[in-house]
Design goal:
528 residues, alpha+beta, Cytochrome p450, 5-stranded mixed β-sheet, 3-stranded antiparallel β-sheet, 10 strands, 7% strand, disordered N terminus, binds protoporphyrin IX containing FE, Cyt_P450, heme
Length: 528
Amino acid sequence: MQLTIPSSLDQIIETVKDINLSSRQQQTIGLLTAATVITSYTFYRLFKGPRDNCPTVPYRNPFNGSSAEYRKDPSAFVKKWTEEYGPVYRVHLFGRVCICMHTIVSGRYVREIFMNSNFDFNAGIEKRFNMKSMADIRAHEVPASDTRVAVVQYLTPHLKYFTPRAVENLNIGLHDIVGDLQGKKELPHLYPLVQRMVSRASASVFVGTNLCQNSELVTSFQEITGDLGSYIYAENYWIEPFQALMNLKMWAIGKFSASTRKHRRVMLNAIVPEIKSRLENAKKPDWERPNDILQDLIENFKVPPGRDIATHITNQIIVLIFASIHTTSENGTIVLYRILNTPGLLEELYKEQQEVLTNAGLDPNGKSSEVFTFDIIKNMVKLDSVCRESMRLRNEFYELTHTNVGKNKVVLSNGTIIPPGGDVLINAWYNQQSNDWEEMKKDKSEDRTEFKPLRYVNTGYPSTKVSDDYLVFGEGKHACPGRWFAIQEIKTVISLLIRDYKLQPTSDIIFPTTVQTALPFGSVSIEK
Ligand code: HEM
């Protein structure tokens, strides 16, 4: 017997009204049929999500829906269903069913998510990757708004001031990996190099010029995100449909994992005495106030009741690290591989660098912390275009999950309903790369899938400018407030490397096509 799951109440009535109830046997069959149909309908509604005619990608596995198919070939999956269903549709992914099934939003509709304060990125991401919980930080003690304030008020306005120290420490980070470099050195992958440079420079700005010399601390800055992330990503996906179990697992990582304990110990060992000595020195008349985010946090943030100041500030710094170090290192690595994979590009960028420095009356071979100033880096427009183009083309598919944290349903302009607690995924592939989005093409012949390094030169679209077709930093009032610092670091890492070293790929460079990593692969030789 074939069971057809009805999609509306009318269909149920149609099915039941034809049952002839003249005999006892027929009555029993009739009742059973009606019960089966009603139960099926209830399940159908439950698994389908809200009644709004939004199409749902068909799936067989009721627990993990389309997750396996999506993970196997995300590009094919996203292309197929976006073509079939258009800009807004539902997919049963990562165990999210019923009213919480992910709604995929593409094209201009993404604005309706980014501009609506009911949608929260942190609430969405924390369902699968709750960094605070995994680092044993109580969420309410370090709200996202605190980290935003730290960046918006104390970091971004002072980027010019912080630049020389960041450049000096990028160089030290580089030296940590390549050493004095007498001959050629082979780097199996570029990520550890970029990550060390970014970690050292970020540490000099976040916790100051004294603590950034603590190599163990810089290593913790470098590794904490990847270490905690590996507990989640190296996992069996069976746990995904069970949110309570996921939460328990992330909480247990925070409380009991060796990585969390180690990184917290290293950070507290460094930060506790530093805060103590700063608080004592501040009482002295000849005190010279340290200028870094640590000092801003000490002076401006309230310590929650029952918490000591050092633990609270360490927690704030850890959250800042989660937001900044891996993201910047990963994207810096992506840009570098793109440059190395494009014949003639490295030489063109070197030429631009020499021209910008010479036009500013600076010695093109001068001390890096003196010549690579905030304005000089800003003037490297070709390099900036390469950054935007490389980041636009990173392998992104359904990204930037947002949850409706409001009490009411949100109705998109096409009638799609996102209920309270409902999740949205942004179709970054479509918005950033698809040629089907005609509106985003300058002319019909433009190919958005192509890597065109100088695409954005003189277009008014620097790599920090968010737009519907460039969502790497999000959009709207929660768009990444650290993007100016991130781009400054990425551009300086590249400027230092292409001026002072010779880099050459020693294997093919592979750009990933899976959801597991955005990092390209390939070995590179480096020499002076
Ligand atoms: C290339 C590197 C980076 C990328 C790709 C990146 C990306 C993002 C994205 C996608 C968001 C969410 C935006 C949204 O909700 O719409 C975000 C938020 C945030 N980012 Fe970044 N980020 C980067 C670097 C940084 C850096 C260096 C910092 C700090 C120094 C930082 C601090 C933050 C903070 C505090 C938020 C939360 C903003 C809020 O909730 O209002 N990010 N970032």
